Prior knowledge:
There is one protein chain. This protein is mainly alpha-helical. It has a domain at 1-85. Helix content is 83%, strand content 0%. It is built from eight helices and no strands. The protein is extended and about 65 Å long.
Amino acid sequence: MRRSTNFWSILSVAITISAGIITVLGLLVGDQLGLLSTLVTGLGIRTQATILLRIAAITIALTLFIGILNLLAVHVERIVTRRSNAFYSVALILSFFLVIGMYVVQRASGFVILQNLQISIESALAALLLFALVYGAATITRRRRSLTSIWFVGVVLIVLIGAIPLGEFAVVTQVRDWLLTVPVNAGARGILLGIALATLVAGVRVLIGLERSYRE
């Protein structure tokens, strides 16, 4: 039994490593790398990589579909059993079918109902974010006054005042644009680089067989 488990574990690692190497070669190797490009083209690695990517996309789509069905089944069970929080389950199911129906109507008639609804929801969330920022700034200045809290409150005030479309706040608007262009953009790129490095490390661990989910 132990040997059979080890065999299937080794087989799964081998399949994962092979699929990863084929996908990486098919995506990264171009037509100007000499012998390596000829080898990739001759073995049909690019076609195989495309097929593997399509299989992965289909698998993810099926997983998402099964997850949605499971979510609906769980909430339908809550409604049938009449639990105390069944109201939220009813709201979720109605919202789900309402969004699907509005999308179908939009595609059939050319209306932009869903888009208008999404814009309204985003505007409401932005307004809630405004109150959350103001409340957070007030809480920080009341509980702990430090250089970091002063910087936070100052940036919040500059961003909020700079968003007001008045000529009297032109200088503040310029400072706000600089903040959004330089520091915020740099922070967003740093977060994306961190995500990319973490994904790369996880992928390398899978390719070399160090990931526990493929060994056990």
